[in-house]
Amino acid sequence: MLLLHRNLPGFHLYTVKIKMRQFSDAVKQNLYAVKITPYKARMARKAEPARTAAKRPGRAAAARAARARRGQRNAAEEAPYHHGALRDALLQAAERVLERDGLAGLTLRAVAREAGVSHAAPTHHFRDLSGLVSELAAIGFRQFNAAMAAAGAPDAPHPARGMARAKAYVAYAQAHPGMYGLMFRTERLDYSRPSLDEAAEAAFAGLASAVAASRHEQIEQEHLTLEQAAAIARAWSLVHGFTMLMLDGRLKDILHRLPTGTEVGTLLDAMLKIAMPSPSAS
Questions:
Q1: pLDDT tens readout for residues 170-197
Q2: For 219, which of 8, 24, 111, 240 is 20 to 30 Å away at the CA?
Q3: Residue 107 maps to which CATH number?
Q4: How many CB atoms lie within 10 A of CB 163?
């Protein structure tokens, strides 16, 4: 009886439906596997950096610690300087570098190294090398002006005061050759900086005042006559030219032709006596 029922058409239809349902389930499983495999691969790739970082948590912490140590080191280097003292310390370091290594060796890094501070410190205070050397030249002019003002007694006759000022001019250049050279390197200096402009103007005012005293007249610095301008240029050329020949070693050729033991100061005295009027002429 069971065999008869299996031979019926309805039984065969039922069997076909069952097999088709089983086949459909298998297809769905395969489709799911096809879709889920790339998804799992993508998720694995995304998770890999996190797993790597989790395996090496010390690397990020070490980087943060290194940055902190650098910041602490820079702070420690600059800690002794407060309320503008770092700026002054940088200028003092710059003057040492200038006198020791010359203008070619004067860099922001060299100054920072000399002062024992971070390389960023000079840039913070002076912006660039031009700013630094301009402020340094301003200091040079102020030092120079002080030396000129202190030369000679105020009540001394003009020739004596003129001689004293000329000798002080040369002496300053001898003591500070690097600074003196920088003061007259106009192409390296920024005269838009008030400190430099004021100091340089004061130096010119001192020269003009000395020339005015020698001529027994008043000189308006902004409105010179041709004769006044010529007198100022003559006085400046005399002492500045002698100073530059001395600094460049060009006077040695003259000195070795003179009696043994003749020094630069002796030659300067003789030149000034020839160039300046005698007391009777004043």
A1: 999 999 999 999 999 888 899 999 999 9
A2: 240
A3: 1.10.10
A4: 19
